[in-house]
Amino acid sequence: MNNLETASSGILHQIPVELWNQILHAGQGFMVEDLKTLCFVAPLFKAICQPLVYKSLAFRGAKRPCGYSFEEVETQEVTHDVNQWKQDVTGLIRAERRLHLIGDHPSLSTHPRTISVGVMSYAWTRSLPPADKTALSKAAYETFSKFNGTLLHTLPSFTRLLRLEIGVFPIDDKLMRAMSLHPTLRELKLSSCSFTTVTFPIPSIRLLECSELSQDQAAAAFCLASSQHLEELRIENMEVSAILKGLRARPESESMLTKVHRLTIVPTSAKLDLVGVETMLSYVPALRQLDVGEAFISVPEGDQALKSSIIPCLRRFAGPLSFARYILHGRPVTDIRCVDGTSGAFAETLAELQVCLNPLCLSTVTAEGITTLHLPPHMIVPIWLLSRFVAETFPCVVDLKLTVSGLIKPMDRWIAYPRRRCRRRRRRRCTDDVVGPLGEGTVEGMVKDIRENVEKELVSGFYNPCHTAKGVDYAMIRVSPPPSATHTSSSLQDIDGVPTLANVCNDVVTNSAGVPSRDPEDYQETLIYFALGWYPLPAGIQTLFLMPGVFPSLSDITWPMYPPPFGSPGTVEEMTLDAVVTALGKRYPSLGSVTLMASNGRLRERMRIPGIGNGATRWTVLET
User: Fold this and answer.
1) Which of 447, 504, 543, 558 is within CB 3.0–4.6 Å of 593 for a Cys-Cys bond?
2) 0.90 exceeded by the pTM?
3) Per-position DSSP letters for 475-542, written without gaps between them
């Protein structure tokens, strides 16, 4: 037996550790249970897999349970959802025990990089029923207080913790002190948190995320940012008024966030107030990256550009095209990533296209200095006009995203279709309710039973790799999602794309200037026109994304009764896609990544892989 173990160990160690790390880290879709089982196979696997299992911990049960409220009520009879109370208290006790077991373990406590406490959105919380000073409320309070104490006790034990996420959770003075004294904590996310103490700047925090905070909560949360240390600020699902109140509530000496270089704003509604946005930006003078997503920011006709004194160092912008035209003037922006906002853009002639896109050229680096250009998906411009304009106006672009359209229709004939919004489902109330207070002895017995069950579930199976995920409560069941891409490769030398493309468009001829005799009829033909060089691209292009738009052949039948089918590629043959990528690779030597859409609606990404042995360049195809 010893000889067998020695031989097995020898075989494992013959394979380099770096290769094992690649196998187990490269998104192979291992389940948490798989990695835990591997920890018991060999010490080598344990050293690799155990940090993955405990890299990210989520204590979703760490929330105020049903019946926690101590508010006085007028009625003598209080309705308690006892089943919900049991479920919440069980989750809280389990979370406390897991936190204690991992935090007090000398080895496991060194693995977590991210810890999530509570829930990250009100959409996942249950309404607290009214409660007086009953035994249920006292038991819920004591259970919650014990978790809070364990969190304060174990937080310093996580010696390599980088990120802490707190959702729907009270932050008191002790927790504030524990966070400020943690030596490795760099990122903090607060979602719907309440503050029971005065907050102060934490110099170690480099990234602060705020989500679903009220005006009072925002005022306390924004005071956590140190003006000389915070580098990135993310704001999600908050009203502009709450954001501004949070910024204005900061001490005068800390009012300006002078070190913030990246700001991300995801508003609660699709529309942002221009004046409010300008005021927000005035607090981050050193900003280099701004991302406002698909928020619509209405710019009045008379306003031509943002004041030059606001964010003068901006280099990267992501947001609606209308706001890009307003904000880029006089700033060294080289990276422009435009999204839809609430509407697309339309241009039928060169003059209209110049009015639409020329403001992007007003960056201080000029159009020649722009290296990344992503135009909105719903931008309706004939591709034969758009491609030539981009190639001539932005010659140094290396990362380009275009929507391939052939439709010329007046925009006022569009029918406005409302966007689908996520609705929060109301949870059904359990019918197994109890009216009136329960005796303390009864509640104590219930809590005792819950603790015994949790202890049996966790402690007896703590070192057992096969215990169920129910008692594990990880943030994600999978360490990484299973790869949805299929990998194949084919040599460029094995594909002769030009004859294949010419056969598809055998009825198209070009004049002496190289202009084809007719416009493409669909997405596939447009790709062929690019591959044959009839539609130009910037000479140094490295990353290309051609998204299908709309064509008359796909929309004439239903126009104007229905909006044209955006993103419908029509019939695109796989052989044609391979031939297009091959021809583009030969025409543009720097091109390393091409993303197109196949007939099944899936994006097909081709990555160029330089040859190693015989020098032949190959393309790896990823279907996502």
Assistant:
1) 543
2) no
3) S-SBSSPPP----EEEEGGG--HHHHHHHHTTT--B-TTS-BSS--SSHHHHHHHHHTTSS---TT--
